[in-house]
Design brief:
Helix content is 42%, strand content 22%. It has 263 residues and is of the alpha/beta class. The longest helix is centred in the N-terminal third of the chain and has 29 residues.
Length: 263
């Protein structure tokens, strides 16, 4: 009899304790997660905005996948589970659009950016202008132009300034713009071309010059919901949040240029 009573008491406690756990698990399961693939140059700003968004939409999580825009485009083409894509270049978004992989009406231009010439600390005061790359730099890094928008803009700048033929053999291509920055910060290369926004997290390199106006095509960050998204409504809501004045203020702190509709 005592064993039966003890067993019943144990079962009662187990059920009682399992109730809140089961409810908590159910609530966690109900939480929606927006999968965002974004250009790696956005990593720091979006990290701040993710925390801000969590306060306004507690029932929604945001998960980021950062990388070069070209690599992210390829992942989407191969069927990666992505709800929202934010590219650092129009080319990648245009190609996804041509293949019918985005929701056309959701596409909008979020941000602008600029290209900066950064140099290793050992070259501070020696490489001061783009022209100095021809005879005062032994090594230069830019992102792979075919897959890294910053690399494309960087090459355009060097071509525009009639420097490409003089420095091409010195160029070390990188998988993304943050790798370029790492090469410069570590002194592995004398100079590199990155977005001005990346210089916010630079540790030892210095900004030598900004790319002249008109030396490269406009740097534009488009974003769009992916056609196969499982969270289209939540992805749209996060997009709208990124266009708010509060988000624009954060982007500006990281030296991005909020475009029309964000001010």
């Amino acid at each position: 009899m005592r064993k039966t009573a003890s067993l019943l008491a144990f079962l009662f406690v187990a059920v009682f304790l399992a109730g809140p756990v089961a409810q908590g698990t159910a609530r966690a399961a109900e939480k929606k997660v927006v999968q965002v693939s974004a250009a790696i140059s956005l990593k720091d700003a979006l990290g701040v905005l993710k925390d801000m968004y969590a306060k306004t939409a507690p029932g929604v999580g945001v998960q980021f996948n950062f990388g070069s825009s070209g690599m992210l485009q390829k992942q989407i083409e191969e069927g990666a589970p992505v709800d929202l894509f934010i590219s650092a270049g129009k080319k990648q978004m245009d190609e996804l659009s041509a293949k019918g992989l985005i929701v056309p009406e959701t596409r909008s231009d979020l941000l602008g950016n600029e290209i900066a010439l950064v140099v290793a600390k050992e070259k501070k005061g020696i490489i001061r202008t783009f022209a100095d790359l021809a005879d005062k730099a032994e090594s230069i890094s830019i992102g792979q132009p075919e897959t890294v928008p910053a690399g494309k803009y960087g090459k355009e700048t060097l071509v525009s300034l009639q420097l490409w033929d003089k420095v091409e053999k010195k160029v070390m291509f990188a998988k993304d713009v943050r790798q370029v920055l790492a090469y410069v910060d570590s002194g592995n290369v004398d100079a590199g071309l990155v977005y001005v926004t990346d210089t916010v997290v630079m540790t030892s390199g210095v900004v030598a010059a900004m790319a002249p106006k008109g030396s490269h095509s406009p740097v534009v960050y488009p974003m769009a919901v992916i056609k196969d998204s499982k969270q289209k409504d939540e992805a749209r809501k996060f997009m709208e949040f990124l266009k708010t004045p509060q988000a624009a203020k954060v982007f500006a702190q990281y030296k991005f240029i909020p475009l029309a509709g964000n001010l």
